Amino acid sequence: MTSLAAGQADAATDHDRQRALKRFASGDALFRNLTRLAAILVLVVLAGVAVSLINGALPAFGTFGFGFLTESVWNPVKERFGGLAPIYGTVVTSFIALLIAVPIGLGIAIFLTELCPRPLRRPIGIAVELLAGIPSIIYGIWGLFVFAPFLQATLQPFLIAVFKPIPVLHDLFAGPPYGIGILTASLILAIMVLPFITSVSRDVFSTVPSVLKESAYGLGMTTWEVTTKIVLPYTRVATLGGVMLGLGRALGETMAVTFVIGNAHRIAPSLLAPGTTISASIANEFAEATGDLYTSALFALGLILFVITFIVLAIARLMLARMRAKAGN
Hints:
Organism: Plantimonas leprariae
Strand order of the largest sheet: 1-2
Strand content: under 5%
Function: Part of the binding-protein-dependent transport system for phosphate; probably responsible for the translocation of the substrate across the membrane.
Pfam family, one: BPD_transp_1
Shape: flat
Radius of gyration: 27 Å
Keywords: Cell inner membrane, Cell membrane, Membrane, Phosphate transport, Transmembrane, Transmembrane helix, Transport
Distance between the termini: 68 Å
Domain ABC transmembrane type-1: 87-316
């Protein structure tokens, strides 16, 4: 009798175990399928955007061919369109913005993690992160009504006077001080991408093991040496990721740049001259694009920006892979 009861109890236990295992397996399968669906959805959306851009850009590329990428003429009246000026403005403003923001952002991150007094770290860190939360249109309004007049009265005349005797730099800083222009848009972009670079760099600098830095200080290394030989090499992969995040923000920024760049479809050697970017051109002219060819030209600009962003991200991934490989060796 006792053995029969024990056998029934074991059978019930096995049955409950099987039910629990089936329930766990069903939950895992559901979770796996949901995550797979989310990943596939991202690919579908990306493919849909690419197909839409290609389909919309076909008439423009069919009419102008490769010349759309090499011509700077933009005349909606005569239906002559070239995307070189917006491409030039996008690349130049993003490059100058990173040239300014990267050293400043890394410097702020190093100060917060290595040099800043502990009571000030949180307030300064919060202030930097608040810059990322300001809407881009606020940056644009501030840039147009405050920053641009300030540059027109101070920095731009100074640059014109200083570099006037120098042949090559004279061309980069020539012309009247408009206030708005390529340089102003680049400075606004630098301010906008600064918090992204700083926040990511600060977080990854904080992950450096204390024993490494303390050992370096114990050997007599200075803060500069610890930063350049310990902190930056240890976090170079993640730091580059933060820089690429800032570059992505700079390439696609629209409203702030539209306010301060001048929106002129031309390529001028001077950084003080007005210009345009791909996103600014689309934002300014899409509502006015009445003809099919005009609309297709704007789609073509969007496709070019899409390709530029893809190429930049691909290069970043390649650089990260090589850096990881070298670190592994």
